[in-house]
Prior knowledge:
Helix content: over 70%
CATH class of the largest domain: Mainly Alpha
CATH topology of the largest domain: Substrate Binding Domain Of Dnak, Chain:A, Domain 2
Distance between the termini: 16 Å
Strand content: under 5%
Radius of gyration: 50 Å
CATH architecture of the largest domain: Up-down Bundle
Order of helices and strands: HHHHHHH
Number of strands: 0
Number of domains: 2
Amino acid sequence: MTPSKFMIARVAQAFGYVRRAQRMADAASEMHLLREAETYLGEMVWQKVEHIEKLSVEYWNLRKLMKEKNAVEGRIDECQARLNNAHQERSNLLNKTPEANKELFDKRAALLAELENLARRRDRIVNDARDVRRAHVGLKMKLEVITSEVADSTARQEEFRLAKERLAEIKTRFVALKEERLQVANLIEEGDKKIDELDAMLDDERLKRRQVAADAFQSIGECNKEMSLLRAESGLLDTQMRQLYGEIGRYVSRNSQSDPSCKSAASSHRGMVDVMRALRRSVALNHRLAELS
């Protein structure tokens, strides 16, 4: 709002053209821009106002807050480093197989392969025993038939004798297969027990890894909580510093024409100071128009 526009608006009001809500909205928007400009100017020039007595409180408060903010940022960096280390440690624990576990896995795989071979051997023994049993049944039936027949001939007697001998051999073979099957079954049982022992050891190792991972996760939670508190503290410091920047920028911009120290501090931001002066004038004119509505 310039003086010429103010006069035009006053004439329009005289003819009943009233825009009070618009004037208040324009004033609020311009005031917001003005406050942002004051804060920015204060941030740019605060280090140059040490010798301005009326800004000494703001200047030294800013120096103090700056040190506190640097300390907080240092703690945030340290906490972030600890957080990154905890994440890396947890990731390594969950994704990497420890050397001890690898050895146990290798033993387990070897045992499983051995048990598989034993199972195939047991199946072959059972199949052989089944064939022997069938041969035994056949020979018994043959002997029954030969015994029931008249067997006076020498050939018949010889056949009977050979069948009896073969039957004895089959019985011996069946007993040997049965014994071998029991031995293989014992070996499989022992292997199963070893597998169970290895599984128990692997479960213990996994439990230990999970415990360590849980500790790392707890550390992550603590670091995140600390980071949240530190960031909140840093945000509070930023808010306090912005307020002080705004007060310094307001004073310097208002007194840049009357105070040589303020003029020197704002020398590199003259264009901004002129715009801020125009904004103040426009805000005041908009308020005046709103009050006259």
